[in-house]
Design a protein that fits this description.
A 6-stranded antiparallel beta sheet has the order 8-7-6-5-2-11. A 5-stranded mixed beta sheet has the order 1-12-16-10-9. A 5-stranded antiparallel beta sheet has the order 4-3-13-15-14, with helices on one face. It is 30% helix and 40% strand. The chain is elongated, with a radius of gyration of 28 Å. By secondary structure, the protein is α+β, with helices and mostly antiparallel strands. The chain contains 2 helices and 16 strands. The longest helix is centred in the first third of the chain and has 68 residues. It has one domain.
Length: 288
């Protein structure tokens, strides 16, 4: 009987040790799942956002190169839509959506119209990427007017890459040159979303240069949902002329779309806008 009781005591102790070990493992896994996994996934999604910006920069470079060379050969730029889940742990996968719309709320208007520009203004089209993150703050990347705008869901838009605007200071005027890519989408190839790789195919179609002199009292208005970013970019490019009084740059909040206004100061403005028509297709498969 004594031997049997010793066996029973040893068995009970073994079961208790096993239960304690299982509980300890469960606590450790829970700590990893609740504390370290969210931090790791947040960093993975932040790295993915940096990757998307680099890929958007490459897309901008491809469009700029096509505009300069005027080559009609198509070029495909890759975009990573989401970041993968971690194996063996409970995680949520980040997704993304890239889209293009011909119905843009961004455009340029010249007052008074010097006669060389379209009477209704010039449309500024864009390509959008919207993240659907689970851990990191959502971000939006926009290739608009040749510049790259980045906006977080809880922040203000920032122009991370300036549009192609150049200025020359002459004796009585400021000469502005603006290369304005205008995207034209193909039917049923304007958006896609998911987790994998997406390819954006662009090819140059045509270009037309408009010219006009903006006299004192006139202005150039750039309307955009990202007017704060445009204001920042234009001050980066033309700020020295604004500080010297040669021209003025002002942002105006308006409904439904705010705008940035460039007005002549002590000098008139000669404006050249090279409108570059670029076909864009989003997603797998190409339409000729």
């Amino acid at each position: 009987m004594r031997f049997t009781r010793g066996m029973q005591s040893t068995a009970v102790a073994g079961v208790i040790e096993a239960l304690l070990l299982v509980a300890l493992v469960a606590i450790i896994i829970s700590m990893i799942q609740l504390v370290y996994i969210p931090q790791l996934m947040e960093q993975k999604e932040a790295d993915h956002m940096d990757m998307v910006f680099n890929q958007f920069s490459q897309l901008k470079s491809m469009v700029d190169m096509q505009a300069i060379s005027r080559s009609t050969s198509p070029i495909s730029s890759m975009l990573t839509m989401g970041s993968p889940k971690l194996p063996y742990f409970l995680t949520v996968q980040a997704l993304g959506k890239v889209s293009f719309s011909n119905e843009s709320t961004s455009f340029i208007r010249i007052f008074p119209n010097p006669g060389g520009f379209p009477s209704g203004g010039m449309t500024i089209s864009s390509v959008h990427f919207e993240s659907q993150n689970a851990y990191f703050v959502d971000q939006e990347y926009v290739l608009e007017g040749g510049g790259i705008v980045v906006q977080q869901s809880n922040g203000i838009p920032v122009m991370r890459a300036d549009p192609s605007i150049a200025a020359v200071n002459q004796s009585s005027k400021i000469v502005l040159h603006f290369d304005l890519p205008v995207f034209v989408g193909m039917q049923d190839k304007t958006d896609t979303e998911g987790e994998g790789k997406c390819f954006i195919r662009t090819n140059y179609s045509s270009n037309q240069t408009y010219f006009g002199t903006i006299p004192s009292g006139g202005n150039i208005k750039i309307y955009s949902d990202y007017d704060i970013a445009w204001n920042q970019s234009l001050h980066n490019i033309l700020g020295v002329y604004d500080r010297n009084g040669y021209l003025t740059i002002e942002r105006h909040s308006a409904q439904p779309t705010g705008y940035v206004q460039i007005s002549p100061g002590t000098k008139t403005i000669d404006l050249y806008v090279n409108v570059i028509k670029v076909f864009v297709q989003i997603g797998p498969g190409w339409v000729e």
